[in-house]
Design a protein that fits this description.
Layout lengths: L3 E4 L10 H5 L6 H10 L3 H8 L4 H11 L4 H9 L12 H10 L4 E5 L3 H7 L11 E4 H4 L6 H11 L6 E5 L2 H9 L3 E4 L3 H10 L4
Parallel strand pairs: 1-2, 1-4, 2-3, 4-5
Helix pairs in contact: 4-5
Amino acid sequence: MKKAVVFDVGRVLFQWQLRALFEKLIDDRVELDWFLANVVTEEWHFDHDRGRTLADMVAERIAAFPQYEMLIRAYAARFNETVPGPVAGSHELAQRLADKGVPLFCLTNFGDELWQVFRPTQPIFDLFDDIIVSGIEKVAKPDPRIYEITETRSGRSGAALFFTDDNPDNIAAAKARGWDAHLFTDAAELEARLVEAGLF
């Protein structure tokens, strides 16, 4: 059985920064920093990755910060603007792997509703055999259950899975299952690890 490569999405295939959207909407830098630290935060966003609905999250946040209602609603309505573009070099690596016939999968912490809006805009995902999305599965990395789901869906386990992710906790969870897992820093480093693994 061929070894498969499993990519994370955010900050591995695509840049992701909440700031990329909200710096368009908040002119004052001090207020922007405060807003991203206290209102629309990455920790709050992660609730959607784990399966909470946007309707619940947005209503709850507006109740807590009514003065920011317009901006909180913008998070849901304009989420794709938090993705400035691809991570340099990563798409090219995915294409080269696909051209060599290497099976490709994604394992991403991504909310279901936001994924349904983002996925159709990115043809790169057509290269992948399957995409495991935390918001759909209602369990997020680094919970072992989502790695088990990936093993089942890919038909592989242990060292038959080469995994790259930008989060050390997610890498540690993969290594605990015997995956060939590497912390992503940039495409050049990833290419070197793929060569070492015999995938290029």
